[in-house]
User: Fold this.
Amino acid sequence: MSRNKEEVLQLANEGQVIEKPQDVLKNPFVLEFLGMEEKAVYSESDLESAIISKLQKFLLELGKGFLFEARQKRFSFDEKNFYVDLVFYNRLLQCYVLIDLKTEELRHQDLGQMQMYVNYFDKYVKQDFEKTTIGILLCKEKTDSIVQLTLPPDANIYASEYSLYLPDKTLLQKKLDEWTQEYEYNQSKL
Assistant:
């Protein structure tokens, strides 16, 4: 279901080469293993609790090299407290990975908040030998144009959609057929 078909084809041909954070991060995440009931409304706290109770499976869904550090990590400045939903460290990338959970559509304010979290970690938490902190907004829905307009091109912040359940078999088969036809059409042009 990836939206970047060229990268999927390149991955199929070359295997995974880790050069940048996007090479490790998934989009979308499939959180079916959480076993959450399909309902119209649930809270970020419900989602976070489900992730923590199934942490091992969530780490496997995140990808390689992730280590769990904290839940609701508090940091303070200017006499105000702020909380990052989940804090991980990636030993392969050698950096902190902050995850903020959103049960609604991603808003530009969410991106600004994550930028502040990343800036704080880079300035006050990370060591000199570590690489720049990565921020991930894990959201129910996102609009790519909001992300592109809000963040500078070099931001180390990523918005990834999540799904609590895989699409049904019929939809997956239809998409696979479309991609196969598109691939064959592109190969015939070469």
